[in-house]
Amino acid sequence: MNTVGGRDRAGAVLRDKTGSYEDLLAWSVLAGIIDRRRAGGLARLAARDSAEAAKVLERAIRLREALYRIFKCVVEAWRPPEADADVLHSELAIARSHQRLAAHGDRFGWIFLERPDALDRILWPVPLSAAELLTSGDLPRLGQCRGGDCGWMFLDTSRNHRRQWCDMQDCGNRAKVKKFREKQRAI
Length: 187
Ligand SMILES: [Zn+2]
Fold this sequence. Notes:
alpha+beta; 6 helices; globular; binds zinc ion
């Protein structure tokens, strides 16, 4: 699930799809964070409190950019900037403060408190998922698409771990076409 069209080589966002709190809401529905009914409630709330909605949007973008750099550091094996780790930690602290342990069958699981009035509730699962990935054994499988102006991250679940593209239909095909054209030109 992506909120940007792509990134150039320096990591700058191209075709940002998150220009408003409503865009963020639409993304959270697509990502399965919230259902349409609750998203409708938050949209009405955001319309009444645009200052708070703008703050949440700002936090979302700050978190997205911090996570992008942190995961890029993982892929390229260098240390993430302290400031980005700080952003992740502060969002983690907020998200965790809204969690409770609840009995679920024969064990306990984490749930979020039902807070229909919290505009930032759509952010809460994001730092938690990021932390889960950062501490999981799957982390070495994290990769970044080699497509030009793409920069999307993916988890390589292929058997030989040699995935290069975010999507074979998209960047993979474009790269193939480019290679083919270059070959044609060389003949
Ligand atoms: Zn790609």
